Amino acid sequence: MNTDQLFLGIDIGGSSIKYGVGNRKQGLQSFQSLPVTQKDLSGLEGLIVQIISEMQISSVWNGIKAIGIGTPGLIDRKTGQLVGINPNLPFWIDIRPESIVPPDLSIPVFSDNDANLMALAESTQYPLDACVLGITIGSGIGSGYVVASRIYHGSNGFAMELGHVCVAPGGALCNCGRQGCLEAYAAEKGMRNRLQERGKDLSRIQLAELLSLAKTDTVVQDVVDTGISYMALAVGNAIMLLDPDVVVFGGGGSEIADYPLKELIKMIRSYLPEPVNHRIKLEKAHMGNKSGVLGAILHAESLFADTWER
Length: 310
What we know:
The structure is a single chain. This protein has about 300 residues and is α/β, with parallel strands linked by helices. It folds into 2 domains: about 130 residues, ATPase, nucleotide binding domain (Nucleotidyltransferase, domain 5, 2-Layer Sandwich), CATH 3.30.420.40; about 160 residues, ATPase, nucleotide binding domain (Nucleotidyltransferase, domain 5, 2-Layer Sandwich). Helices cover about 35% and strands about 20% of the residues. The chain has 9 helices and 13 strands. Strand 10 and strand 11 form a beta hairpin. The longest helix has 25 residues. It is globular, with a radius of gyration of 19 Å.
């Protein structure tokens, strides 16, 4: 790749849009964030226009060859549209993520699920042929799987929805409308909902506060412990199915000091047979909240090389 070629990565989240410029060889060259204050399609479009306008007057614009977008939600590989339910951005559905970029730019745009792109970014910390399972912990639970620097999507693009595997048949109602999903117990919103069922209204506190409260409140501690137990079971099962070289834990939850990551890893290992335990790495993500942007950059770079440089 020509090192003069740069790629713009945009990571769309429920509370902010992160963005930056870079490439695989040089890494992330810039990183910024804008809050999502107007939670509708026009508000999201306005933020994208703001980012593009900022880039166009910068010295790097002429070097940008493509744009990568990371987004929450399921992307149907056959239609390219977001499908299903998107709880944090309910308006962001039945739409191609690429369409958020003004079409008059004449720059190729590529998109993928945000957890897939987190895993792609983290995979750069390991050998090129590594199998990397990335887990994101926060308002939801996401996951992505990268094999030899390529994202695994499955046949329809719906692979690696770890947050929506069933860990408690007939259990708590999840945001997706089904019962017993991992996300209903192990994600921030799921934990708050479980506490609501037990008479504790903590709807206004963030995950960091909830985890801190667990140190002195036995009910909160029990809900957190249940979530961690289900998370360990789900991740352990995923390891046995996928046989990754490494599992990396990212997302906002993993950055919180009180998040019991060591306990989670210990519990996961208790579910694994010795040959697997001996070889697999279970680690905290290296790039923090920048991984989604770098993943979007790498995704755009790879697909640009595949489709535009032949």
